[in-house]
Amino acid sequence: MPRRPRIHLDGVPLHIVQRGHNRQPCFFADADYLAYLEWLGDAARRTGCQLHAYALMTNHVHLLLTPADAQAVPRLMVALGRRYVPYVNAAYQRSGTLWEGRYKSSLIQSESYLLACMRYIELNPVRAGICPDPAHYRWSSYRANALGETNPWLTPHPLYATLGPDDTRRQAAYRELFDQVLSDKTSTDIRLALNQTQPLGNSRFFDAIEQATGQRREAKPRGRPRKSEQDASPQGDAKPLGLAGLDQ
After folding, report:
1. For the residues 180-201, what does the mean pLDDT come to?
2. Which helix (H) or strand (E) holds 54?
3. Residue 52 parent element (H or E)
4. What pTM does this model have?
5. What is the DSSP annotation of 211-223?
6. Tens digit of pLDDT for each residue in 170-179?
7. Among candidate residues 136, 131, 137, the one with its CA nearest the CA of residue 62
């Protein structure tokens, strides 16, 4: 069965996951996480991508970013791999591939899912049983977004900026989001869209992507179809979308 092509669009946020080959570790020491983040930040600056959230886990990474130019995303991932993979191979006397094939990606409709996706990403260490609170994990963006820790690699998304009039109140409002349990449906929707390389949003988002690309892209649950939930969203309805503003 042919692989489903990825879709990247100018100015539309993208959730990316890349896993270690055969689910094997891709980070082995603190120096590895630091090197990856340094090269990630450099590649983001060079390619014009804004990084909003991340979680570096032992055997995979989650990134949430917005590219100014859609073609910047593969350039970023290639540039990052060309630096990080040789570094790991040299440091640990290994050879061959580090990552499991192609990275997975999912376009994100901001108003409907961006903040939920940030929570999903930064809660990875909690779901994995590594720590009881995302603030205890060093290798995610939570401490910057929620606690104001200096992080040179991040650029806040405009939607994050609407959480409050200043840094203190934005961070407090962001922390309050984590007091709410991320629903099973939202988590399932995020995983399904990512695994199927499909966009995540409501029906208007899918319609706008179809108008812009000529492709109808929408995640489909396996088995019997559920009742229509296309316009449901964890953060309320989105605004009408057009060709020039897929993510307004």
Report:
1. 93
2. strand 49-56
3. strand 49-56
4. 0.86
5. HHHS-------SS
6. 999 999 999 9
7. 137
User: Can you tell me whether residue 116 is helix, strand or coil?
Assistant: helix
Tokens of 102: 């192609």
* Virtual torsion, Cα 153, 159, 160, 166, nearest 10 deg: 110
Answer whether 108's CB lies under 8 Å from 13's CB: yes
Which residues, in sequence order, are CB contacts of 60 under 8 Å at separation 6+?
17, 18, 19, 20, 23, 26
3-state SS class at 40:
helix
Domains of the chain, by residue range, sit at: 14-213
Look at 97-111, 156-170, 219-233 and tell me which has the smallest mean pLDDT: 219-233
Answer positive or negative: Cα dihedral of 14, 20, 25, 29. negative
Is the CB of residue 58 less than 8 Å from the CB of residue 25?
Answer: yes
Q: Which fold has domain 14-213?
A: Alpha-Beta Plaits (3.30.70)
Q: Which amino acid is at 168?
A: T
Q: What is the DSSP letter of 134?
A: G
Task: Determine the Cα–Cα distance for residues 96 and 20; give it in Å rounded to an integer.
Answer: 12
Q: How far is 135 from 124, CA to CA, in rounded Å? A: 12
The length of the chain in residues reads 248
pLDDT at 227 over 90: no
Q: Which residues of 164-202 are buried (b: 16+ CB within 10 A; e: fewer)?
A: eeeeeebbeebeebbeeebeeebbebbebbbebbbbbbb
CA distances from 74 to 81, 88, 247 (A): 10, 21, 20
